[in-house]
Amino acid sequence: MAIEFKLPDIGEGLHEAELLQWLVKEGDMVREDQPLLEVQTDKASVEIPSPVQGKVVQLLGKVGDTLHVGSVVVIFDDGKGATATDTQKQKDNPDKVTESQAPAKQAERPAQAAPAATAPAQAATAPAAASEAATSAAAAPSPAHASAQGGRALAAPATRKLARELNIDINQVHGSGPAGRVTAEDLKQFANGGQAAAQAEQAEQGNAAGGAAAPTPAPYVSPAGAVEERIPLKGIRKVIAERMVLSKHTAAHVTITEEVDMTELIALRAKAKPMAAKRDIKLSFMPFIFKALTAALKEFPYLNASVDDAKQEIVLKKYYHMGYALDVDAGLLVPVIKDVDRKSVLTIAKEMQEQIGRGREGKLAPDEMKGSTFTVSNMGSVGGLFFTPVINHPEVAILGVGKTQERPVVRDGEIVIRSMCYLSLSFDHRVVDGALATRFIARVVELLGDPTLLMLEA
């Protein structure tokens, strides 16, 4: 009996996912719970298991396709034959098959040659048919206009989420992306009325010109001998691109930079490393930075917040979940350490170590990469001096940590060598003013520069 398997609800309110790879092929015998396909959600790849044991009859979709929750992705044959209901339906309507039987029936049905007697009539009607087909083709909406004509819009999960936040029917938005895909910028223009005005103006110009289509610009052609490589923008890289654009088009980004003297903290870490090593823990500076940030966030709660754009509310978080940027081969992940204020430095270090290991193996669970209230991006390990990090939407701030290096500084009227580091705080100016942000980062600098104060706060 043919069984249709539909893409299940992946959770997190997602309605679609990108197909990364098929883990089986048509004709394979699979067992129950065997992975069938791998899909990409927001920053996490998920393997979808088989609900039954049987033979794979058909795989619906190719790598790179966007699969919608509830759509049929695999058709199985469980080897049990047709049910009594299916048999009765087939007797009552021999020419009608169920959706699950259609592929097999089409495969069994041989091609039929047209009777020779109808050939002259077909030849006579060919010009009219060709003319009608050309007219239909000209009238059919292009993919870029499909959403505006009432079809289902093509869009990434993050874009659909933004549409819900802006209270926009995404199916009414003109998509300017590849294959008519709706982008975050399209939503912004639609919300501001600019897109509707542009479409109306374009339609008016078309009517004035007698319906003539505007000339399509010629595609760019590379110079002879030039070498290019085209890589599809998909998977984690695609999600990163959408998230960054969403953040830059939503939050009013401002960045301030301050330097911190890490000399005393380096000495403290050196003393603590042997203790951590006995517990198989690799101790970095990040747990100390997390603890300093938590103490400062308690004093400045508007930095530990998010914006509910739909309700026009600032949401102050009373919990402290630290996200941190993790560089892996597939792109950038943001694992989250929950309840940092309730954990010791060594506990945080151990949890980070385990998360980093799973992240580099591609085994981080989706729940480990959501719920952060503040994010840290540490570029020091790869040599960045300072930078302007992009806020992890919908948070209102992110801290960028540059490399620590010895520099001459003035202390008590004398030039001495100290281990200095730049901290860059990007914040959403809709929520946080410059003076507040400056006081916040000054407090972080004070705590990191004097580990005694940091330990008292912890």
Task: Itemize the secondary structure elements and their pairings.
Layout: E1 2-6, E2 16-22, E3 29-30, E4 35-41, E5 44-49, E6 54-59, E7 66-68, E8 72-77, H1 84-92, H2 102-108, H3 119-139, H4 157-165, H5 184-191, H6 194-208, H7 235-250, E9 253-261, H8 263-278, H9 286-299, E10 305-308, E11 313-316, E12 322-324, E13 326-328, E14 331-333, E15 336-337, H10 345-360, E16 374-378, E17 397-411, E18 414-428, H11 434-449, H12 451-457
Parallel strand pairs: 12-16, 16-17
Antiparallel strand pairs: 1-8, 2-4, 2-7, 3-6, 4-5, 6-8, 9-18, 10-11, 12-15, 13-14, 17-18
Helix pairs in contact: 9-10, 9-11, 11-12
Coarse structural class: alpha+beta
By DSSP, the count of extended strands is: 18
What strand line-up does the widest sheet have?
9-18-17-16-12-15
Question: What does the overall shape look like?
Answer: globular
Mean pLDDT score, rounded? 80
Helix content: 25-40%
* Unreliable stretches covering 5 or more consecutive residues: 87-150
Largest sheet: 6 strands, mixed
- Rounded to an integer, what's the Rg over CA atoms? 29 Å
How many individual helices?
Answer: 12
Order of helices and strands: EEEEEEEEHHHHHHHEHHEEEEEEHEEEHH
Percent of sequence in beta strands: 15-25%
Distance between the termini: 63 Å
Word description of this protein:
This protein is an alpha+beta fold and 458 residues long. Helices cover 34% and strands 23% of the residues. The chain has helices at 84-92, 102-108, 119-139, 157-165, 184-191, 194-208, 235-250, 263-278, 286-299, 345-360, 434-449, 451-457, and strands at residues 2-6, 16-22, 29-30, 35-41, 44-49, 54-59, 66-68, 72-77, 253-261, 305-308, 313-316, 322-324, 326-328, 331-333, 336-337, 374-378, 397-411, 414-428. The strands form 5 sheets. Strands 9-18-17-16-12-15 form a 6-stranded mixed β-sheet. The protein has a 4-stranded antiparallel β-sheet with strand order 1-8-6-3, with no helix packed on it. A 4-stranded antiparallel β-sheet has the order 5-4-2-7. Helix 9 (286-299) packs across helix 10 (345-360), helix 9 (286-299) packs across helix 11 (434-449) and helix 11 (434-449) crosses helix 12 (451-457). The protein is globular.
